[in-house]
From TrEMBL:
Keyword presence, RNA-binding: no
Entry protein name: Flavin-containing monooxygenase 1
Domain of life assignment: Eukaryota
Recorded family membership: Belongs to the FMO family.
Keywords, comma-separated and alphabetical: FAD, Flavoprotein, Monooxygenase, Oxidoreductase
UniProt-listed Gene3D superfamilies: FAD/NAD(P)-binding domain (3.50.50.60)
Gene Ontology molecular functions: flavin adenine dinucleotide binding; N,N-dimethylaniline monooxygenase activity; NADP binding
PANTHER family tied to this protein: DIMETHYLANILINE MONOOXYGENASE (PTHR23023)
Pfam family, one: FMO-like
Matches recorded under InterPro entries: FAD/NAD-bd_sf, Flavin_mOase-like, FMO-like
Amino acid sequence: MATHDKHPNFVSKIAIIGAGVSGIAATKQLSHHNPIVFEASDSIGGVWRHCSYNSTKLQSHRRDYEFSDFPWPQRNNSEFPTHLEILDYLYSYARHFDVLKNIRINSKVVEIRYVGDQEHASNFGGQPNDHGTPLPGYPVWELAVTNQSDTVQYSSSILMIKIR
């Protein structure tokens, strides 16, 4: 990984890449661990935000595409929801469960490295591994994350990546 002498190495027990449907749900479920979510774009919503035409609609009824702990408004409406309705639903869910505070928008993970335990760790970003182990005896993942101005290094014991 590139050397970034002036940037600290932040530690989070859980790192989640992507603030789409899965990333938001995982953040809510793991909120008691205070996960950090890296979203490369400027907002949450994943493919519903960035890969949808204005005319896109869900292929299922609302009640078949909802979080079990957060029903759709107008749940019995027989029309398929539009991508804007889906985005509204996702934002409502994220606000309701207060997960927006965990999401770092415009934060693109550009490099990931599995370090393992501290005894076998190599240098991260040209720096000695002095970040400690987030969970002693557990593996460590190291991430380089670019935001609008810097590349910042993070360490995490658990890494969740969404797959499209």
